[in-house]
Amino acid sequence: MRTITSERLVLRPWDAGDADFLLDLEGRWEVVRHLGADPTTMTSRSQALASIERRRAISGHPVHGIWIITDRDGARLGNLLLKPVPLSAGEVPADPADVEIGWHLHPDAWGHGYATEAARAASGDVFARGQSRIIAVTHPDNHASHAVCRRLGMHHRGTTTRYMDTSCELFELTRDG
Ligand SMILES: CC(C)(COP(=O)(O)OP(=O)(O)OC[C@H]1O[C@@H](n2cnc3c(N)ncnc32)[C@H](O)[C@@H]1OP(=O)(O)O)[C@@H](O)C(=O)NCCC(=O)NCCS
Question: Which of 42, 51, 76, 78 could potentially form a cystine with 21 if both were Cys, beta carbons 3.0 to 4.6 Å apart?
Fold first, then answer.
């Protein structure tokens, strides 16, 4: 799987050596509290290792991916994903499937513009590889994430229940803006 770089950041595949960081990231309620209909914190290293295996499997795709975000010195900062979004029960898949972009930073890395920089680099990469549209689906109270969407130039398309069995704010970005 490819590595994506930006001015301050490297987005590279997750590997088993990142398990302690992933547990520290997703073991925090402030990181997971707005994720999906029933957010839960990660509680064990074995869960982290299993999650890294699933991330690596998805990342075999030519366009989609789930990357660990590090700085240029390799310090771990967070997670960036671009993959088909889970649909709510009974929803019919679009053709092509809706691809979501998502970001999760360690709280120590909030407030530096890293999520926006990583998302800009990854969206530019997938648009160059033929993806024409990406979406972000965010909890209505997740104002920090809405701000990332706006910084990226994403368009707010209202509230929807189409994804993840919950009510989300929908943002959209197309290759042509
Ligand atoms: C959502 C999340 C990634 C946003 O992180 P963030 O650090 O606020 O977002 P950015 O990386 O875009 O950084 C922007 C902040 O950095 C500041 N900043 C500092 N230096 C900067 C720079 N060089 N460039 C841009 N912004 C910079 C901005 O002023 C802004 O701070 P402010 O919100 O206080 O105004 C973070 O809150 C998070 O991980 N939340 C938990 C997981 C989550 O909910 N993910 C989203 C699921 S939909």
Answer: 76
